Amino acid sequence: IYASSKTDVYIAGHNDQAFGKMYHFDGAKWQPVRLAAGEGGIIPAAFTVERVMGFGGGTVYGVGERIYSNPSPPPNFLDSSFIIDFDGQQWHEMEIERGRTLLSIWGASPTDLWAGGLYGTMYHGNGTTWELTPFPRHHWISDLGGTSSSNVYALAYAVDTSPADTVFRW
Questions:
Q1: What is the pLDDT of residues 23-67, one digit of tens each?
Q2: How confident is the model over 128-163, as pLDDT tens digits?
Q3: DSSP string, the chain
Q4: How many Cβ atoms are within 10 Å of 64's Cβ, its own excluded?
Q5: Rounded to 5 degrees, what angle do the CA atoms 79, 84, 86 make?
């Protein structure tokens, strides 16, 4: 959930039946955000949206997964990182180097953003471009937060070793 005011609230999430959905509250009612090209948006399907956050009503970001057909099955489908941004008028998919599904996003400012997810996929962005950042591959990053660009925390849990929650600090 992200709110810039009581009349500008976004929620995002998915389940295995509905995939990525986002809704916007204008202070009176909830409306679906039309992201996918088949729903009136401009983003090609198939994708999910896991989290949303922003900096005022005109700068909002969402992260999740892009789903695509595997050219060498099995499995039939693969996932990769997915980041979208809202410029105050339209949602756009941001170009990024392929990583795994993203579960969280946090930013100190619109020009200092972090997104993390499965198998140590971690990006650092400046609002325009995103770079993969080294992170232990056997951890899934479930949440990000911080107080400044030099004080960023990642909550992650190990998946290839004994399951354990770990807090990392940048």
A1: 999 999 999 999 988 888 999 878 999 999 999 878 999 999 998
A2: 999 999 998 889 999 999 999 889 999 999 887 666
A3: -EEEETTEEEEEE--TTT-SEEEEE-SS-EEE---BGGGTSSBPS-EEEEEEEESSTT-EEEEEEEEEE-SSPSSSEEEEEEEEEE-SS-EEEPP----S-EEEEEEEETTEEEEEEGGG-EEEE-SS-EEE----TTEEEEEEEEEETTEEEEEEEESSSS--EEEEE-
A4: 28
A5: 165
Residue 56: how many CB atoms within 10 A of its CB?
11
What is the rounded distance in angstroms from the CA atom of residue 63 to the CA atom of residue 42?
16
Token couple for 155:
């909550």
